[in-house]
């Protein structure tokens, strides 16, 4: 392998992402400096936050630069090392983006134990999505046994973990997802108490039936009508972990139409960015890793094959076509 491939952001999307916003490039393999190591990427992660980073609009993180490797979490194997802390054959997680190869000085890499947890899970249930679920559950929602927790995008990488964590706490877990297949999976495979299909056209009545005692905590990934409906069913002193607003990921603002409930029910609503809390990651990832290794936390993956498949897979993710965690397999 004298060369490797990467995908760069070629242009900023206007509205929905299109394949032509990206460009596939071939580059010569880099030469390592003293203290560096080279990683062959096995899987790269696709996540909704990527749409926001493709925009120049002011946000919590700098925009993705044009003509640079598209951002993204990765897991892979060390294939060359001039760093005494890393050996050839070790597996690591890092942020090498949409690329077959990554080079690092090791400072932002995490060594992975693949003996009890599959490599791909370190981009999902034992990676940023799992950590996001853990943080929202433990730091914001803090539900007590018997309370009702509602999770939007419940079949996705984050939502599926949230509901299972709620069940482990003795809560009633209610998911919201799109389509019968996803809802059946959420209840029958993941063990949620109920799942409402927002595409069925009866969201308010169905959610009220699924949460007859009202809603004590919401983990929000979607925004728009889904969030408005849940907010209208909150109990006094409900907590909302605002993780994502995928209903507005093409740049449009998404108003909150049931905002009166925030005051009436004294709702504690908190938005969060999980990467801003690195001090909690060791504990959170240890907890999630133990649950996966013990078979107490299930997950599902959608896997696209080959680097060139990444743009279409991201477009599909933002349209809800994926089932569980969206990955791209490179090797």
Automatic annotation (TrEMBL):
Residues 18-328 form the Enoyl reductase (ER) domain. Keywords: Oxidoreductase. One of its GO terms (molecular function) is oxidoreductase activity, acting on the CH-CH group of donors, NAD or NADP as acceptor. The keyword Nucleus does not apply. Gene3D superfamilies: Medium-chain alcohol dehydrogenases, catalytic domain (3.90.180.10), NAD(P)-binding Rossmann-like Domain (3.40.50.720). InterPro entries: ADH-like_C, ADH_N_2, ER, GroES-like_sf, MDR_fam, NAD(P)-bd_dom_sf. CDD domains: PGDH. It holds the Pfam family ADH_N_2. This is Enoyl reductase (ER) domain-containing protein. It comes from Pseudoduganella violacea.
